[in-house]
Predict the 3D structure of the following.
Amino acid sequence: MIVGEVRQEECLDLLIALNSGLPGMCSLHANSAREALVKVCTLPLLAGENVSAAFVVPTVASCVDLVVHLETDVNGHRRIREIVAVSGRVEAEVIETSDIFVAQGGQLTRAAGYPPHGERYGNAGIDLADLLKAHR
């Protein structure tokens, strides 16, 4: 499932679908990958009083694997700024993340993080270890 832009309470429907096991992705506006994750946790709360952060935060942590943040350069070109892995763990109501790639000096550089569910890449025919090693 692909949702072109998540802006309001429809994010709850997206989370419910992802939580049921459907693969998917969406786009939304945020200033960083971590801010995007916070936004995905906040938007479903617009659906009403019966939706709480106690439900949303762990659901996001378990449904979202990666967050890719793009920025627009001075020429209007979009470039990947960072790729963050979502571990699935929540501590003190904050979803744990780790950097996989970060922008340094205009280049995307491999960081120490590792994507969750590595076996899914292999099932799709992608050698994840080789892919990550190639970008060191």
The chain has one domain: 2-133.
